[in-house]
Each structure stands twice: as C-alpha cells, then as structure tokens.
Amino acid sequence: MSASPLIQSVDWAAVAPPLIVAAAGLVVLVAELFLPEPRKPLLGWVSVGGLVLAGLSLIPLLDGDRTTFCLTAGGKDCSYVADHFTLAVQFLVIGGALLTALLSIHAVEEARMPAGEFWFLLLSSAAGAALLPASRDLATLVVALEVTSLPAFALVGLRRGDRLSSEAALKFFLSSVTATAVMLLGVSFVYAATGSLHLGAISRGLDHVDPRLVTLAHIGAVLTLVGFAFKLAAVPFHFWVPDTYVGAPLPVAAYLSVVGKAAGFSGLIVITVLGFGPYAHVWGATLAVLAALTMTAGNVAALRQRPANAHSAVRLLAWSSVGQAGYLLVPLAAAGYDDKPQEVIGATIAYALMYAAVNLGAFAVAALVGRAHPANRITDYRALFSERPLAALSLGFFLLCLAGLPPGVIGLFAKVAVFRTAVDAGLGWLAVVMAVNVVVALYYYLQWTALLFARREPVEAAGAAGAAGGSAAGGPVPAASADATGAVAALPVPIPLTAAIVTALGLGVVLSGAPELVLRFATGTLF
C-alpha cells in the first residue's frame, strides 16, 4: 500500500491562527536573550499582541471552509481543515490564552518566574490547542495534543524552589504520559484495523473491517479516547486536577481549566463524530457513563470544600471544573445516539463558550484576592463586598453563571441546552443524574456567593495567619497591613488584571442578555 503524496502548496491563511501564536512564542524566546532585566515585562505585552493578531486572523476565514495538506490520490482526505467548527474552538482557545496572558503580566514578575520561558511555554501550548480542532488525521491530532500538554507541564512547575509546584508538575506529567501511552496503543490498533490515519478514511474503513479485526478496532476506538478524556479531566483521569491547580501559578491553573478542556473536548468531537462514526454505539455509551461519573465526582468533592475548614478557593474551582467537564460530555454522549450528531454537539460548543468566559473571570477575581491573601482560602472572601464591591459583584455573577441561576442567564441557558440533548437522545437516566448534580452544585456556589456579602468576623492575628498560609502555599507575600478585624488593606490592582475581569464580566453580561446568540453561533459552526 503506497503512501499518497501531499499537495505542496499550503494555504497560509488557513493555518495562520496557530502559526501566528507559534511565531509569537519564538519571537518572545529570542527577544528575551537581548532584553535587559528591567525590560523583561515587555515580553508579556508582545505575547498579548501576538494573541490579538492571531484572533484577528480568524476573520478572513469566516467566508467559507478551507483545507490544506490534502492527499492527491486515494481520496480527498486532508490533514488540516479550517471549517466553522475549527474557527469556533480556535476563537475560544485564543481568547482564553489572551485572558490568561492578561492575568500573567504582573504575576510573572511578582512570583519571580523566568519571563522568557513562561511566555514561550504559554504561547507554544496555545498554538498546539489551536491546531487541534483543525486536525483531521490521528498523527496530527496526537502531535497537537502533545504540543498542548508538554509546555503545560513546565508551566505548572515554573515556580522554582516551590515544593507544591514541583509536586503538581510531576503528578501532571506522570498522569499525562500514562494516558498518552494508552492513546497511542489505541491509535495503532485503529491503524491496523483500517489501514489509514485520516479520519475520513477511518470512518469509511470501520464499515468494512475484517471480521477477525472487529474486536481490535473496538478496543482501539476506546483506548484512543483516553488521551482526550485526560485533557478534559474526565473520571477516572481527573485525580491530577486539584493538586495541579493548587500547586500551579494561578494564571496557569486558569489556563488549564479552560484551554486544556477546549483541547480535550474538541479532540473528542473530531475523533468521535468524524472518525469513529460507525462505532457510535461504542463511544456513545462510554461517554455517557464518563459524563455521569465525572459530574458526580467533581460536585461531591467540591461539596466537601468548606469555608469552616479553611479550604482553598482554587481547590474548589478545580473540583468545580471537573463537574463542569461532566456537563460538557453530555452532548457528546448524546451525539452517539443521534442521526445528526453535528447538530447535537452544538450544545457542547455553546456550553464551552459560556464556561470559558465565566470561569476565567472567577480565576481573575481569585488572582486579585490572592494578592492580599496568598493562601487564597475560601474564608478570605468573607465580606469582599465591603472591601472591593466591584470584584465581589463580578465574582458573584460568575458563580451564579456556573450554577445556572439568574442573573447568570447564560449559565441557565447553556445547562438547559445540554439537558435537552440528553432527553432527546433517550438518555433519561443521564438527564436525571445531571439534574441531581446541578442541585448539588447550587449549595457550594451559593455558599461562596453568600460569603462575599457576609459580615467580617473579628479574627486576631489574621494578617499573620494569611502570611503563614501564603508561605505554606509557596507564593510571595505582598506587603499589606491588617486591621483589627483581620481585613487586609486594599492593594493596587494592575491594569491588565482589571482588564481581564472587565472583559470576562462584559462577555457574561452580554451573553446573558442575548443567550440565544450563543446557541445559534454554536449550531451554525459545526463542520
């Protein structure tokens, strides 16, 4: 079986978004060698500019689908497709990376992280995540997934000398390597059964697999999903999440919670709907069980994070993100039971867009609070409204969106859209599990929201306790004075951090005012 040659011409406009992000990373890496130490903060703004330029490069692609790196014989399969689905996910990835960059500009300097390495790693990972939804063969998918993951390991452990950061990076790395090994085994099984790595050819080949290789093809399809399920933090590949988020620099945790999930769910959508369509009865049931287990495990664990026990707010957000991943999987599972899966998974895109905006906003407010309370405990948010009313109102809105309660209408709208896909697909049991989990999640979201507006209780030596907690967490302890009630004097808020909060809040408010626009956009962007 001879390999088919590739067309030598490249559609540079189609590959521009990930290419610009990657080029910006190389520019930052080289520029860091020549910039004196006082000028290193400029690297952050160069990164922001590169991400903005990559976002603008999506606009010319809206006029129609583009393909490149296509076979010249044996079919018209292509390795890179810039269709509307690709653009929607790339918009999410680049937008999420941009907000992460705004969160990171001052965090890199304050935590004394190496600026050149940080920005290069962040942009490299974002380039891989932007490439992933456009990939249409298993080789490119695996490469894109690893380009997304490998820099993320280093980002988590970039706070040198911090024990928690090093442990988080090691756990993240070992878990991911194991998942990747299993996924590569699955890819080899699929290739052995179908004789191709292109998703279109795999889909056609699975309809005519040699009867002796049917079991091999089934096992290969399930194992291939493992790597993407890991990035999505689906059970049982979720145990790395809480320790990694707490040990990582806060902007990196925010990045993993949004862009990492975007990479995972886009990979799952592409590989299941376009590659494993004939085996929908296999992956549909598998993803339904994973969705139920993931949302339940995440919400139950988040329920145990109590203010009275001085638990970390970041750990609560980590478990919340696991629960949200379960909701993202519901439409994918429903797609396995639908004759038109492209229409069903529009709900996943809509939910992911809502989740990205409000979750990054929640992490942005957490970064603001963490400047005065390095331990970032849930109790540190008590009476935040009396100290920073706008930050408290913003965080309250973000939490209500995640809970699916007014005025966070976009959260309610997205959950209803996801719930309806399960009902329409005949997955009544999954709809019931989701409804129960939504009710469970209300408790910890509302508990945190109520804490923002509660009265501050007098606590002796609160400032010393906060400093001790910050030292234990491995983060820098900013200079701040504590009053008799334990409140910490307001610190100046960096302009990029304010911009990140305002941008996320603006997106949430606009989408809550016109929630139908999200679903129309999502359902109109699929393949």
What can you see in these coordinates?
Belongs to the complex I subunit 2 family. The chain crosses the membrane at residues 12-35, 42-62, 82-103, 115-132, 138-158, 170-193, 213-240, 252-276, 282-304, 316-337, 349-369, 390-414, 426-446. Its main location: membrane. Residues 460-489 have low confidence and may be disordered. Helix 14 (346-372) packs across helix 21 (516-523). The relative contact order is 0.09. This protein is an all-alpha fold and 527 residues long. It is built from 21 helices and 2 strands. The protein has one domain (16-523).
Order of helices and strands: HHEEHHHHHHHHHHHHHHHHHHH
Mean pLDDT: 84
Separation of termini? 30 Å
How do the strands of the widest beta sheet line up side by side? 1-2
Instruction: Please count the beta strands (DSSP E, at least 2 residues each).
Output: 2
What fraction of the residues are assigned to beta strands by DSSP?
under 5%
Total helices: the number is 21
- State the major sheet: 2 strands, antiparallel
Low-confidence stretches: 460-489
Structural class: mainly alpha
Shape: globular
Number of domains as seen in the coordinates = 1
| Proportion of helical residues | 55-70%
The radius of gyration computed from the alpha-carbon positions, rounded to a whole number of angstroms, is 23 Å
